[in-house]
Amino acid sequence: MQIVLISGLSGSGKSIALNVLEDAAYYVVDNLPAVLLPQLVTHLRGAGWRRVAVAVDMRSGASIAALPNQVDALREAGHDLRFIFLEARDDALLARFSETRRRHPMAGEGVTVAEAIQRERDALAQIAELGHRIDTSDLHPNTLRAWVKDFIEIEASDGLTLMFQSFGFKYGIPLDADLVFDVRCLPNPHYDPALRPLTGRDEPVIEFLQKLPEVGKMAEDIRKFIGNWLPAYVRDNRSYLTVAIGCTGGQHRSVYLAEWLAARFRDQVRVIVRHRSAARRAADREAAAAQSARPVVSSAS
Predict the structure, then answer these.
(1) Which pLDDT tens digit goes with each residue over 127-137?
(2) Which domains does the chain have, with CATH numbers?
(3) Which intervals hold domain RapZ C-terminal (predicted)?
(4) What is the maximal distance between C-alpha atoms in the chain?
(5) Model pLDDT for residues 228-238, shown as the tens digit of each residue
(6) Binding-site entries for ATP
């Protein structure tokens, strides 16, 4: 049976992830106490279900402490279990709770939303290490939907998945990064008007960066570092290793290097590439286009 567990901070997008899985024909259960997970799996397998998605978080209280043991037991039983942990920066979560006016599940008398967020983050710290972390701070809902779809479509296999993620320092360092490399010291294509609207995946930008010796040296140094230490992460039984490559805006240098590095490691491990800031700009353009396409309704005086 394929089991997808969803956990994370309140307001980080768990409902969006569950909706994606429900649309993909998973049997979806929200807010399940962790201690009931084995019974649920047994029941649904007997009923003929082969794909199940379950959200387990702090709403189930202290029972979430049982989750690590339950995850190990289900994997040892031969299930294809995948774990997604969603998180976001405090400022992003505070803004979401303010916009929706929802009550934080850990807030109460004398406890502010900010304090509730920190309490929940502390309580879930160990749970976050169980699987694939996604920082949704600056993600458009459509981007999160796409990333969840990519995650469940990856062919199941033992071993480590290596993710290269480009980002812009102007938006903050991603919370889900395990290793962070700063490439802002490299020449910036942004200052060439012809290259400015392009990304590190476009051929003119690739040609510009490939001609620079310092870019090649930086890329090779990062490749050697990851190559030298990757076996240690594999021995540590890590399922995912996220390598974040950051430049100023996350559009040119970091995108180019993330793609370059991914190509060098695809023959060694399973590789995923994501471009945080590029996805953010694409979502903003889609939103702007949708807004401009709306008919203007005027009322007669």
Answers:
(1) 888 889 999 99
(2) 1-156 (3.40.50.300), 158-289 (no CATH)
(3) 161-277
(4) 74
(5) 999 999 888 88
(6) 8-15
Please state the residue numbers annotated as binding site for GTP. 57-60
Give the integer Cα–Cα distance in Å for 259 and 207.
14
- On whether the pTM is more than 0.90, the answer is no
Contact 252, 198 (CB under 8 A): yes
Instruction: Detail the residues annotated as belonging to a binding site.
Output: 8-15, 57-60
Distance CA 219, CA 86 (A): 30
Nearest Cα to 254, choosing from 194, 161, 174, 192?
174
